Amino acid sequence: MFLKKIKDKKKKKYILIMSSDFETVILDNIHYVYAIGLMYKSEINKIIYKDFFINTSKKNCLKKESNILLKEYIEYILRLSNSKNKIFIYFHNLRNFDGFFIVNIINEHFNNIDKYKKKILIKDNSIFYIKLNNIIFLDSLNILNNKLSDIAKKFLKEDKIDFDISKVDSIEKIIYYYNSIKKYLYKDVELLFKIINITRNRFLDLYNLDITTHFTISNIAMSIFRKNFFDDKKIEIEITKANKYKYIKKSYYGGLCNVHKTYLNGEGFLYDVNSLYPYVMKTCEMPIGKGEFIIKNLENKKDINEYFGFIHCMIYVPKHLKIPPLMLRYEGTIMQAIGYLKGIWFSEEIKYAIQLGCRIIKVYSILNYKKKAIIFDKFVEDLYEKKKNSKNNIDRYLYKTIMNSLYGRFGMRENMNISIWDNEENEYLEHITKFEEIFDGNIRICKLSKELYENVKKIDSLSKEDKNNIDKLFHSLKTKQENTILCIHIASAITSYSRLKLLKDIYDHINNNKAIIYYYDTDSIITNIRLNKNMISDEIGQYKLEHEFIEGVFLAPKVYSLKLNNDKFLTKFKSLKKNYNNVLFDELKDILLEKNKKMFFYNIEIPIIKNIVKGILCSTKKNMIFSFISKKYDKYYKDNFFESTKPKYINKWYWFIEKVKKFLKI
Hints:
The chain is of the alpha+beta class. It is 33% helix and 30% strand. A hairpin with a 2-residue loop joins strand 19 (436-440) and strand 20. The longest helix has 30 residues, at 178-207. Mean pLDDT is 85; it is low at 423-448 and 479-483.
């Protein structure tokens, strides 16, 4: 089965676009909604705004008053809906915040199955879609993946209201800051309303595509590609089925990211690749046609050049390679290791590894593609040129976002935990992995897995009718599962080529310029020597100099600090929210001087804990400790100074021992 070209869809009937936002206060670590803003355009083109506030006179009934407020909000929208139109309401973070309150209130108060038809799509504990009759709640963050303030500046040249909403932490503060909250809420809702309407109109104008039919930017990019740039009569892109998916998935890694040297005292340069993934998509050949499994032990490394696809093998990576060429999943983490590596990799990565001195020990199997072709060149060229020649920030942003979002859609996870809550029918979207039914009010939660299905069928107490119904449901879901578009071989090839591009440039820079690489991450390199001029330009695939600095500290992947030439600092710290990134350069530098020294942060707000079934969001603060001990590499110390990292060495007996453990179930 292969990917098909798609045609234009008929335009929808009249729909109503709304924007909305919730403000919450935390009591006993649980979030409660105290204010709601809603904006839309009426049929006579009048902009209408309405806000909702809790009754602050009842201070001891926050939970009850918040519940009443949300119910009033839903009822107001229901009065606006009718059978002739659909209402699409956008939140900027429905999936991980606002949606939980909506699920809770719908589940509690709108349970009449004859009056209310409900459907909720959940992916990995995040809410992507909520439908109540003709009202559909969506997340603009899935299409415009930036902070609202950043998008507003880019699209509208407007700012959010300068008010610290986090100061509102009690009923008393709601009363005290009431007017400020009203202004702040109105501005947020207004900005989102303008942004989502601009975005929708631009996609309609540019591609005759309505964003209300697409949940994510990657789905939008896929539709644009299949409709405008894909010829299924010339190019066959195989849709990945289960056995091939599991095989290729083991080759699908992200970008390279590692610390090589920890301290740079002197001139330093941080370079980024311009549009790395689009460059690879434009210039590299992808596996097309039908992949065929070959079970063959190829002792001669030259035989590898005859194949194009994915190879399961053991390969020896010599110790002299300080920056190993292959990624590996090893003892619960992903790393670049040396020694005896066993895994599945894209053939072009293995071929380059052999050029660097690696040696094939044994080949277990190959998923070979006899055909290969450049398939995204027109897509990337068109979007890149339009982005380059666009005269407004909006189109430039949209073209860039589309161009960078397509490859991820090909690599959508087969085992993504997706479920539909539906009180009307067993209708499923996307991909579902477990089969079980939980009844919570009138909402049915369904998931699919063959094992669970077979266990349910064995239950003696089930009637013949029940078993027949389970059969019908399972096979219905299985059919939809099989029709899901998964082309993971394309995504894996793109990410592999991207790592190769960065790796080749790193080795060329080291060998030709006697440079030291201190740090690299996906599409960036930090080094002590300038790259050659022929590598620098604004063109796709070339490098741009992001920062020059005079001192740098590199502690761990995504943890570093640079002292810039203008007496400012650039600090990246992956485990902290952005507002905590003003970590002192000297503190990080001091950690290099003492083995396994820890870093303390006090009163840090941890990520929100979510419970979809109960519709609860919990938030708290705690002290955090970072020790910078990594499983990805070994640390090399000189005179008690953390000087550099060394790749982990994997001995040839490791895989045999693991096999024995698995056999003995240890």
